[in-house]
Amino acid sequence: MRNPTLHDVARAAGVSYSTADRVLNGRGGVAMKSIQRVRQAIEDLGYRRDITAANLSRRRSYRFAAYVPPGDHGFFSAIRRAFLDQAEARAGQRITVDLRDELDGPPADCDCAVLAGAGQERIDALIAGDVPVVALVTDMPGARAYIGIDNLAAGRTAGRLHRIAHRGRHARVLPVMGSASLRDHRDRLAGMAEILGADSLLPPIEVRDNPDRMRDLLGQALRADPGITGIYSIGAGNRGLIPLMRDMGGNRPFVVLHELTPHSRAGLLDDLIDVVIDQKPAEEVACALDVMKAIADGETPGSVTITPAIFFKENLPGVPA
Amino acid sequence: MRNPTLHDVARAAGVSYSTADRVLNGRGGVAMKSIQRVRQAIEDLGYRRDITAANLSRRRSYRFAAYVPPGDHGFFSAIRRAFLDQAEARAGQRITVDLRDELDGPPADCDCAVLAGAGQERIDALIAGDVPVVALVTDMPGARAYIGIDNLAAGRTAGRLHRIAHRGRHARVLPVMGSASLRDHRDRLAGMAEILGADSLLPPIEVRDNPDRMRDLLGQALRADPGITGIYSIGAGNRGLIPLMRDMGGNRPFVVLHELTPHSRAGLLDDLIDVVIDQKPAEEVACALDVMKAIADGETPGSVTITPAIFFKENLPGVPA
DNA sequence: CGGCAAATGAAAGACGTCAATCATTTTCTT
DNA sequence: AAGAAAATGATTGACGTCTTTCATTTGCCG
Known about the structure:
alpha/beta; 12 helices; about 45% helix
């Protein structure tokens, strides 16, 4: 009943434990026919190495580095907190997470690194250093896996929400981007365009994820075009959006934005915004660590697409105690 | 640098390994002052028992039993599949899941059991047998933890969606329950009532999660009251709803229902329904197993509230390959 | 067939914890 | 203070794998 051990494999293959071990761990110096017999025995018995025992023996601890942009965008500080929480929670699993600003030096000696929404320069440096890299939030070429949401689908979702909210009426939705040069933001916009059609989608404005700029540019746009019936805020800086909606009172546009932060939560509760699409940073981070562990164990896990949560005023999760 | 071991703790406390072990594992026969010194040393060193080593030593394998109602409601068969998948995925973690119909005999000897949407009779039998029980999908008194969605919040969410969809117009929403005696269903209805108000919410019909009955009763209700602008299907049996919507063509009501199944997925894609609120069976099951493992390890984890996913046509996850 | 390299086997000591046994010390009782 | 009970210490062999060392066997070459 018990799972087969490497001893069982060796016995079944008719070789010694040493030889089975040499095959399993690729140490070389084994005749071809032995290799095949061991492989066959592994297959037959359905042997799976007990990773916990292996790690115990190797005194292996997983050393991960996480690069998260500095500053306190509500969102990235949630990511940062999630890494700290997870590091704490996984201490018993021999996992160490070294959390760093994306600005600092070359990667320390670690088993796998994760980059959250970082630029291409960083990943190049890491890859050059032979460290496998996982992309979080923002995909990037060269990454072994991407963990994050499908931004195109997110944009389509936002579009659908606007369509539902506009049922019957003609929609005029203003997209507010962080930057048109960010892949994520472009994808979201493209997704929305698929659903809304050109006549309903106004040209986007760019606020560089900056609340002040958001307040200025968006306020200006709303004054210039009183016929705007919807807003899709694609990036960050929504702190600047809230007071504008408060000023507009009862006939503000329908607002969809991204990431649940203290500000967007308050906005929902105060009926100043309508929908928040959240990519669940804690779950993303947990997922990223699982993937990194798998990579460190020599597996080749695929990318993980997080299904974003959609929050209204009514289904906000309780604040953690 | 390396994590402290129990040997380190013993040394720091000035006692032998045996004594430290007796304290840690509550074996008794230890003087109060030794207990305190060991506790203090554990605290000071930040000692955390290495669970992998412990499990290795105990040859511990977690034996779980999962009771899932028989039959192939799309939803419960997804739960069932999730258990099988997880059992497979966690074989390396020494976790065995014994999946059973809720009808069969008393609990086998196991570390923890999980009941998915079962009646009270079952849980009583299990609890009498000293097996800790976790409730999945449907909460029940006596369970050590509940893993599932907040049904009240789900109902409110559905209500909000209807309000968004009805903006301006007067809503007349027909709730379709499985059974008014199910706690989950009552909660969902109550949640919706909080948002919609009595004048917009019609009296519910009951279809007992049965597609045929759904087709008959709902069809009848729709013919009787052509002014229905929305449907909230609270339970199962939605297979019977789809063809009705197809028949109504362009001016069908706005439809919100629960659980992503092959049928509801097809309904979304064919524009026959609008929103699916899904409780993510796979995630729930994974979560339940984590909780059960924690319970088996002697921890006392809390309940977990799953945030339901909200699906439109546009953000459906790809079908697993 | 001698000699050399390659292949194999045997063994042992980690890793950190569990669990059990037995010997010894301390503490309490009367 | 003697004897019983309680507490402690010392030790050992698992658990399954890793890693290294050393001895032995096998195969191949000229």
